Amino acid sequence: MAEAKTKRTGASVEAFLKKAAGDRKSDCDAIAAMMAKASKAPAEMWGPSIVGFGSYDIVSGKTVNAWPVAGFSPRKGEIVIYIVPSLLEDEVRLRKIGRHRHGKSCLYIKSLADLDTKELGKLIADSVALVQKKYPSK
Description:
Blueprint: H1 13-20, H2 25-39, E1 43-46, E2 50-53, E3 56-60, E4 63-67, E5 70-74, E6 79-82, H3 91-97, E7 101-102, E8 106-109, H4 117-134
Antiparallel strand pairs: 1-2, 2-5, 3-4, 5-6, 6-8, 7-8
Helix pairs in contact: 2-4
């Protein structure tokens, strides 16, 4: 089995956000605060572009790979927030959050100004809780 490409790097989260987030740095800082609060873990770089919080092990065949409990990535046009897929199936809840788009496990936002940040914080906290329930700490 192949080893995961996305791993903790030890790189500076602050330096990455300063460079990658541009004028959305304050939004990224706010999302990081929500994730740190929900996961009770500090921010760490995972691969070259994901800011992750905490970790759990995913078993794929004979390979065990670590993955962040919560994470996000500032991309060119949007900030990608990684969420447990089942939570992104609740259209009523997602409408409460505000303007965004989403895929299977990603919530794409342009700005926190477009969102209800309390609802986003609840979504992040619920996602973290589901991951921690399914993959309890050792």
